[in-house]
Amino acid sequence: MTDDIGVTPAGLRKWSPSALRAGRAIGVLSSIALTLMGLLLLTFLLARFLPADPVYAIIGDNADRDTYERVYRELGLDQPVYQQFFTYALKVVTGDLGMSHITGMPVVRDLLEVVPATLELAIVAIILGSAAGIPLGVLAGTNQNKPIDHVVRIIGLIGYSTPAFWAGMGILIIFYAQLGWIGGAGRQDPYFFGEVPTVTRLVTVDALLAGRVDIFLDALRYLVAPALILAYNALAYISRMTRSFMLEQMNQEYVVTAKAKGLSRGKVIWAHAFVNIRVQLVTIVALTFGAMLEGAVLVETVFAWPGLGQYLTRGLMFRDMNVVLGSVLVIGIFFIILNMLADFAYRQLDPRTR
Amino acid sequence: MTLLDIENLRVRYPDTHGYYEAVRGISFRLGSERLGLVGESGSGKSSVGRAIMRLLPDGVKIEADRLDLEGEDILAAPEKRMLFLRGKTMSMILQDPRFSLNPLVPVGRQIMEVYLEHVKRDVTQARARALEMLAQVRINDPERTFDLYPHEISGGMGQRVMIAMMLIAGPRLVIADEPTSALDVTVRRSVLEILDKLVTETGAGLLLISHDLAVVSQFCDRVLILYKGRIVEEIDARDLARARHPYTQALLASIPDMRHPRSHLPMLDRDAIACLDSTP
Amino acid sequence: MHALTRQGLRAYLDPQNVHSSRQAAAQGLVRGGIQILRNPSGLIGAAIIVLLVLAAILAPLLATHNPYAQNLQQVLLPPGADHWFGTDNLGRDIYSRIVYGARATLTIVCIVSVIVGPIGIIIGATAGYFGGLVDTVLMRITDVFLSLPSLVLALAFAAALGPGLDNAIIAISFATWPPIARLARAEAMTIRKSDYVAAARMMQASDLRIILRQIIPMCTLSVVVRLTLNMAGVILVAAGLGFLGVGAQPPLPEWGAMIAVGRQYMLDSWWTVTFPGLAIVAVSLAFNLFGDALRDTLDPRSAR
Ligand SMILES: Nc1ncnc2c1ncn2[C@@H]1O[C@H](COP(=O)(O)OP(=O)(O)OP(=O)(O)O)[C@@H](O)[C@H]1O
Ligand SMILES: [Mg+2]
């Protein structure tokens, strides 16, 4: 093709496709590394600006001067700022995020506990949100300005105008307090604590692995409300984006071609137009999945879900800066990884980028 | 035998104040022949083609005293019947392969799709027929081309893929809407020749839409001249030189001629034509 | 130019009779405004926003009680004739607190926009105009901020700055400038290539002058639209901060903080959380509706 037009830049000819791909991968990786460095710097600066004195946070308010001086030096606060940053970065890279004074545990260990809880929530939510949001968006986008389009739009508008924490409370009042259909605070009935061996740290999966349907169903009762709220938020965004992508595709010439072939409306939509929005949808779903951590912070607080969000808010409340920074870092890394995956999927799904 | 019989066809697009009438009552018949539909940009050519296929967007009004395909009233046909007719009995070749092929589906599959839909649900047969069609439109390496994506083939190849796709189910009527205007002049001819040959061989009717009177007069038996949504002249291609309508004459005069080079080509005198606008 | 008398106003807005670019701009604004209000979502959104502004300005007139006045004899009263939305745990009138809460919300939205708009424009325009290394560095920084959801980022900043409404505003601003900068950069990159910038360069205009006089004015419209669309998000983040206790502090009436307090009593006294929540939903819905209508007006393709 390029020969046809004769515009292949001379410099590119020398490179084989695989070398080009490798070069691009290196480019992507180095930009990710830079973003990560930036994230580290950001959290480091935040830590330096925290008004709470990190020394007092450790030794308590009424320790004597000598202890203070000693801890001050132990924390490396007497060193120049760049050196402190270097020490901090080195520690983080080697997996040391410091101790949490609210749990008395290393932050990394805490994170290993709380991240799976959030993932369990977020995975269920993103699956439900995409499963409902994508078809709704396609429906709206292919029936522009018809009643169904307006209905989907309103569903979406309500979705991203409603604070997740408030919706959570409403559900707790009605379905937990009044009707008793769902579990209240936490991930499962305390009665079942420690009943099944911890394998994946996802309570539902662990229960199934152990063959305990009763525990699985109990966990589901706790999972359903927070997951549905997050799913609704996801649905709102995904359906809106899907709609606008579909609108754009339905106006393309190849859709006329597909119709001229005598394909049914369903085939025109799903086998032609939809194929062309898949790539964009992957990116949107990945972004939504990342944004779900934001909803999780609030929803977990309302439902006392022992996940990353709740951990972060507790850290905030008790001014435990290692907890705050560790959580923020994990969320940032999570985001960056998602972006990377979306980018990768993009290259795989779109033949034009291969 | 009459394939297509149109009487008083009107197409109206909704706009801010009511409707804009793009096609204003045209009538013609088409048999097993090659009919050219010529007019300047905006004269309503594509609107005619799409009205016949009933492919205009919702809200666009199509009216006619008669719009029959092989004796069947298309305007009254239910959408289900239209799905059968489109691609099978009549098909349409679109202008620009860069936009009219699905960019994310390999071209072979796009061709097979029509066969699977209208001829037989048999993937092996469909593949074999699609390869045959690719060979018939003179694609050098059908096996290889079959698996390529539209961005991997040239414009001329793309248009030939389009032709293969639209002829694989053996339609009786082929509407080609400016099939070559997006192509390089050097490949225009060969693409048109392929189209012409295939259509003539199957005895189908061809409605060739173009703004290029020179091309149409070479490839068609008969020519309709469309101006502002009305047919101003219907004439045998051989007789074009004797066209009576001033618009046709003006169009003819603006075709460059190698044998009689001129320093400049005359322009249309719209005011003169506007006076004749009321003539049928 | 016409005097803006009653008769003159009509003449001033006559599209057949334009004398200055300012007049043309005014006419564009009026026409756009009318078009937005013809759109049902635009009308509803605008109406609620007007209501919000009125509530904030006229709070002393609209409130039935002093929003700070505690009355321990009348705690957690259900909605009734005296207390339309009931009372909270300290016997304060929830309706009056919601009316006064409009002030906090409006303050946050306005100040955040005023901070974020210029920052985003300057960073974006500089990056887009210069390109190259400047662009790379600035966009890397933007990427770092974009790698965190805005609430999380705002939380982190709020934690660093300490609680309070002022700090919440700064924290939210830190969290919401990156998308604006991205947008301004994209605009600046297209403007940079335009002929009139080339002309300005040829006349030896300095970079600073070109950025200030050519690039920034051209970015402003789309940035303003984007800011409007962002406001709903800002309101939700602010409410979230208030709810988590790092935003506005008691006894200041702020809707998110009111919900946080009401949460402890919600199982028996649903009104303590319901009404402040409805206020948040209404206002963020309003900005979403208005923003949609605004975009439909400016970009007819997305409308119909
Ligand atoms: N979707 C549409 N909505 C409104 N008006 C339309 C639409 N499509 C076409 N028209 C109008 O109908 C008239 C005829 O358009 P049509 O596409 O049939 O012309 P054409 O002869 O095919 O022109 P071209 O040579 O440029 O393809 C034009 O004036 C155009 O403005
Ligand atoms: Mg056309």
List the defining traits of the structure above.
A: 354 residues, MetI-like fold, 15 helices, disordered N terminus, C: 304 residues, binds adenosine-5'-triphosphate
Please give a structural write-up.
The complex is a heterotrimer of chains A (354), B (280) and C (304). With 354 residues, chain A is mostly helical. Chain A folds into two domains: 9-93, no CATH class; 107-353, MetI-like (MetI-like fold). Helices cover 75% and strands 0% of the residues of chain A. Chain A has 15 helices and no strands. In chain A, helix 7 runs antiparallel to helix 8, helix 11 (213-250) crosses helix 13 (265-303) and helix 14 packs antiparallel against helix 15 (321-349). Chain A is globular, with a radius of gyration of 25 Å. The two termini of chain A are 14 Å apart. Mean pLDDT of chain A is 84; it is low at 1-15. Chain B contains eleven helices and eleven strands. Chain B starts with a strand and ends in a 5-residue tail after the last helix. Chain B has 280 residues and is of the alpha/beta class. In chain B, helix 4 crosses helix 5, helix 4 packs parallel to helix 7 (155-167) and helix 7 packs parallel to helix 8. Chain B has a single domain, classed as P-loop containing nucleotide triphosphate hydrolases (Rossmann fold). Chain B has a six-stranded mixed beta sheet, sandwiched between helices. In chain B, strands 1, 2, 4, 5 and 6 form a five-stranded antiparallel beta sheet that branches. The model of chain B has no long low-confidence stretch (mean pLDDT 87). Chain C has 304 residues and is mainly α. Chain C has one domain: MetI-like (MetI-like fold), CATH 1.10.3720. In chain C, 74% of the residues lie in helices and 0% in strands. Chain C has helices at 6-12, 21-38, 40-57, 59-62, 94-130, 132-146, 150-161, 165-192, 195-202, 207-244, 255-262, 271-298, 300-303. In chain C, helix 3 (40-57) packs across helix 5 and helix 10 runs antiparallel to helix 12. Chains in contact: A-B, A-C. Chain A binds chain B through residues 1, 4, 252-254, 256-264, 267, 271-272, 275-276, 278, 350-352, and chain B through 50, 53, 55, 82-88, 91-92, 94-96, 99-105, 113-114, 117-118, 149, 151-154, 162, 165-166.
